[in-house]
Design goal:
Length: 133
């Protein structure tokens, strides 16, 4: 099973032929700019299309802290997103309180464990909206 950096490497090398379809859901590669290093940081994330945008969840498995990639995009919301062979520049933003309930349902439909992760932490797990620029 692909995981972490190996997942990123195989996904990019094969334009998602390896790594897009993963454990019954779909994965994209999000590349942020490291808020301290300034270097590109790529992370494989479960995603779903949502209108003209895409959604990802900053769950960090229910950890107390937001994942590093989320903190990076809070500092610099201009990112790169790759779905299979389609790599594009995008703007990332956190879903508004009004948007969040429907978006959460969309994401838990593809990865039900998000509901479990939410019970493990006191923080509200952010949903990130990825909009092509």
């Amino acid at each position: 099973m692909l995981f972490g950096q190996e997942h990123v490497t195989r996904y990019i090398e094969t334009d998602g032929e390896e790594g897009h379809d993963w454990q019954g859901t779909t994965v994209a590669i999000l590349t942020t700019k490291g808020r301290k290093s300034g270097l590109p940081r790529s992370t494989p994330l479960i995603y779903q299309p949502y209108g003209d945008a895409y959604l990802v969840v900053a769950s960090h498995g229910g950890a107390a802290e937001h994942p590093l990639w989320y903190r990076n995009l809070e500092a610099e919301p201009e990112v790169e997103f790759q779905i299979k062979g389609d790599r594009f520049k995008a703007h990332a933003r956190t879903a508004t309180p009004g948007e969040r309930p429907d978006m959460w349902r969309t994401m838990t439909a593809t990865w039900p464990a998000y509901d479990e992760y939410a019970t493990k932490t006191d923080r509200e797990i952010p949903i990130v909206v990825i909009e092509r620029v």
